[in-house]
Design brief:
By secondary structure, the protein is mainly alpha-helical. The protein has a single domain, classed as Glutaredoxin (3-Layer(aba) Sandwich), CATH 3.40.30. The protein is built from 6 helices and 2 strands. Strand 1 and strand 2 form a beta hairpin.
């Protein structure tokens, strides 16, 4: 996240940050994100929470996986950048630059 904040500030993009630990997404918000990008993109399967919960060993349906993500939002891959109706997940300078320029208000 630090790289993303630094990059956004250096490139003079305004942003609003939401800490899902303090202000979790509602079920509707998470459903909207997962519908737009897919659970496979949204979930950080390399993260500590994924491993701690042992989810790779479980054969969960998408609805069960969604419920786990709703309960444990620290599994969301970061950053999630929303610009209008478009959503980008993960940090890549070139892709982020292109994404934000294409989706400027």
């Amino acid at each position: 996240m630090k790289k993303t904040f630094t990059w956004l500030e250096e490139n003079k993009f305004e942003y609003d940050f939401r800490d899902v630990k303090k202000d979790p997404l509602s079920k509707e918000e998470l459903d909207s994100l997962s519908t737009r990008v897919g659970l496979d993109v949204l979930i950080n399967k390399k993260g500590m929470k994924w491993r701690t919960l042992g989810l790779s060993k479980m054969n969960l349906r998408d609805d069960q996986l969604f419920e786990k993500l709703l309960e444990h939002q620290t599994m969301i891959k970061r950053p999630v950048v929303i610009a209008g109706d478009a959503v980008m997940v993960g940090f890549d300078e070139t892709a982020l630059n292109d994404f934000l320029k294409e989706n400027e208000p």
